[in-house]
Known about the structure:
Low-confidence stretches: none
Largest sheet: 5 strands, antiparallel
Order of helices and strands: EHEEEEEEEHHHEHHHHHHHHH
Radius of gyration: 20 Å
Helix content: 40-55%
Amino acid sequence: xxxxxxxxxxxxxxxxxxxxxxxxxxxxxxxxxxxxxxxxxxxxxxxxxxxxxxxxxxxxxxxxxxxxxxxxxxxxxxxxxxxxxxxxxxxxxxxxxxxxxxxxxxxxxxxxxxxxxxxxxxxxxxxxxxxxxxxxxxxxxxxxxxxxxxxxxxxxxxxxxxxxxxxxxxxxxxxxxxxxxxxxxxxxxxxxxxxxxxxxxxxxxxxxxxxxxxxxxxxxxxxxxxxxxxxxxxxxxxxxxxxxxxxxxxxxxxxxxxxxxxxxxxxx
Length: 268
C-alpha cells in the first residue's frame, strides 16, 4: 500500500499515455480539474471528486489544469485479490465499476482528505504497528464508503459507450451474477444475444483475457475465500459453486492454482 500527495503535478506526466494499472488506485482531486479515461470511458474530475481504478484497467489523464492536484492511495493487486478479502469486496464492485468517478459533498471531501492524511501517517509507522491485515481493512473501508455514497447519488443520465465497451460492461454484470452456477461461454453469449466466437473475440480484444479466464478467476477466488475463511467442507464448497462432485472441483481448482483444495486450505 502507498499513500501520498501529488505535490507538483507529476500525475499529469505519469499518466499522459494510457497505463494498465498493476493495482488499485484511489485518486482524490483536491484542487483544479482534469479529464480522465478509465478503461476506455471518459470522465471529468474536479476538486472534491474521487476516482477508483482497479487492477488491469487502463488509466489516462487527457487534460489537467495547471493547479490540478491529487491525494492518492494505491494497493497492490496481490493485496486486493487476497481470497478472503475478494469474497468480501465482490458485492461492492459492480456499482463502482459502473460509476468510478464520484463527486463528494464538501463535508465528505473533508472526511476523505483527513482519512488519506491519516493513512499517510500510518504508513510511516513500523511494520509491526501497521500490518497487512490493517491495509486490507483500509481497502475494504474505502470501497464500503464509496459504495454507500454511490448508492445515494441521484440517477445519472445513461452514458454512451461504443458497442465493444457495452459488451464488456454487460458481461461483467452477468459473470458477477452467475459465475457460481454458470461457466459455459455459450450461456453468456445467449444472455447477450451474441455468438460465442464474437463474444470471446471482443472480450479478448478489450481486456486481453479470455472469457474462460475471467469466469474462472471469479470461481477460484470465491473458492479460495471459502477454503480459508469458512468451516465449510470441501464438498460443500464444491456444491456451492455448482460442481457435480468433489473430484471435478478438485481437478478444476488444481488446474488454476497448481494445488488441491485440501493443500490450499492447509497452507499457513
